[in-house]
Design brief:
- The structure is a single chain.
- This protein is of the alpha+beta class.
- It contains 9 helices and 7 strands, in the order αββαβαβααβββαααα.
- The chain has helices spanning about 5-15, 45-55, 80-85, 100-105, 110-115, 150-155, 160-170, 175-185, 185-190; strands spanning about 20, 35-40, 60-70, 90-95, 120, 130-135, 140-145.
- Strands 1, 2, 3, 4, 5, 6 and 7 form a 7-stranded mixed β-sheet that branches.
- α2 links the parallel β2 and β3 (about 60-70).
- α2 packs parallel to α3, α6 (about 150-155) packs across α8 and α7 (about 160-170) packs across α8.
- The radius of gyration is 19 Å and the shape is elongated.
- The N and C termini lie far apart (about 40 Å).
- About 25% of the residues are buried.
């Protein structure tokens, strides 16, 4: 199952933007069949299979999505045009290189382009967040994901914050106590 936090968490480690194209805009998480693929387009002949799935999976009450670092990973040809025509939901994270190719290939409006350019992330401040642009049909908006500090700490995998949590884990013997002390040092440090 596709998980939103994983989508956002990728942006911490990937310097390129993340673009997700999705074929079904009805409640994508309620579908019984969800197919999301990452990095499949680099294999020869795969894009034709993806095109078939985009055209056929809706008949099976399913949804399909592809994850791209850049819209330019989709070749500029008829097969990609078919995939884009069958895409009803698009997600995009912040892109420091600009959105011109995305706007052109997805035929986004000037308003959509302004919304894309408004995306901000703050992964170092007190209240860490990332923003995402979501377009469903003709409706688009920017959404902010801000997770509780304990959840953020649970997903850390490197850096000085993670080292602090690992030392607390060694002290307490379990991750829950380590994270609780990391989040509020006055609770368990006494």
């Amino acid at each position: 199952m596709f998980h939103f936090f994983k989508l956002f968490n990728v942006n911490q480690y990937v310097k390129e933007p993340l673009v997700v194209l999705h074929s079904k805009y009805t409640n994508i998480f309620a579908n019984s069949k969800v197919l999301l693929r990452n990095k499949v387009l680099k294999f020869e002949g795969v894009i034709e299979g993806v095109e078939y799935f985009y055209q056929a999976i809706r008949k099976q009450n399913g949804a399909i999505g592809i994850i791209l670092q850049s819209i330019n990973q989709l070749p500029d040809n008829e097969v990609s045009a078919s995939i884009l025509e069958n895409t009803q939901v698009s997600y995009s994270l912040r892109n420091e290189k600009g959105y011109e190719a995305l706007v052109r290939r997805l035929n986004l409006s000037e308003h959509d382009h302004y919304q894309l350019k408004s995306l901000r992330n703050d992964l170092v401040g007190e209240r860490k967040y990332t923003e995402i642009f979501i377009k469903i049909g003709s409706f688009s908006n920017v959404y902010r994901l801000e997770v509780p500090r304990a959840v953020y700490a649970a997903y850390l995998t490197d850096g000085p914050e993670n080292e602090k949590i690992m030392s607390l884990l060694e002290k307490h013997g379990n991750m829950k106590s380590a994270i609780l002390e990391y989040v509020n040092p006055k609770i368990l440090s006494a």
